[in-house]
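Figure S4 source data
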Amino acid sequence: MKGGKSKAKAETKLSVKKTAPAKKGKPAKDPNKPKRPPSAFFVFMEDFREEYKRKHPNSKGVAAIGKAGGDRWRSFSDAEKAPYIQKAEKRKAEYEKTLKAYNKKQSEGPKHDEDEEESDRSKSEVNDDEDDDEGSDEEEDDD
């Protein structure tokens, strides 16, 4: 008993939380890029959530709604799923059109913006180099 409690406390003090290193290579997301369309199940869930909230006004649990919707979806036959599949296909076709237009716009437009970013970077790098030279003099004074 004596050692059990102290070991547990020692382990928690000694344990180090490991955090994932920041990824530098991942490009930032473009907020203008169209969102992917929902699948047939998510189209069904849009309708089901409203229906579930009407029948169960006091239930606010997301998990309960999701579980009930999943059970209902699994019990559906292909014929019952068909209208949701059609809606999902329409949304997918609209998405593909908007994505095509977005990609076309991206291929034409960003060339000019990238040049400006590079010139801004080079200016900041030059300024950083000058700051580093000044900082090295200050370090020598401290010694």
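Figure S5 source data
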Amino acid sequence: MARKRQTTQTVPAQKPPVEISEDEQWRLIQESGVLKKISDTPKPEEAVGNGEPLPLAEEIFNAVVLIMPFTFFLVMMDILIHQQYAQQPTFGDVAQRLLTNFPILSVFVFYTTRHKANPRMQFTLFLLSLAVGPRMIWLINRGSWRVNLRQCPQFATIWLYTVVQLNINWAVISLVMIGAWTWFTGMKLVL
């Protein structure tokens, strides 16, 4: 059986800490420039709201993140409105409508996303929501089926997009106003 060998290690004697006066400490800190480096780095809260424009690549990414789901929503609404009127859209019909609507939707989403924080853009989106929402509800209730096939998918997409892009207070006001208009005029959303 192996015996544990006890070794005695000597701990070197620690030197007592050097006493530096407070004035000397501040002089060393200021000469090293540590405080300047800390104060020059922007805080994350300041970097977001400092008014600097985003790089173009980030703006394009932000727009694509919104363009993709709204394009799918547009295609879905096109297929659903055709199904509602017992029409069977062909792949060519859907592709042709997508090719004509996609570029317009992309440019619209890019520029409204770029200027979303601007109060004028918020007001414009608010007015657009107030124009498009009642028009779509009126078309569903009073429009012919051919007009509904052509216009309702675009109106539904634009209305949803404006509500998503609006600040919450503007979006709620818009939806309440459109709901009041719908109730006052006797329109309904369910056929």
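The radius of gyration is 32 Å. Confidence is low (pLDDT under 50) at residues 44-48.
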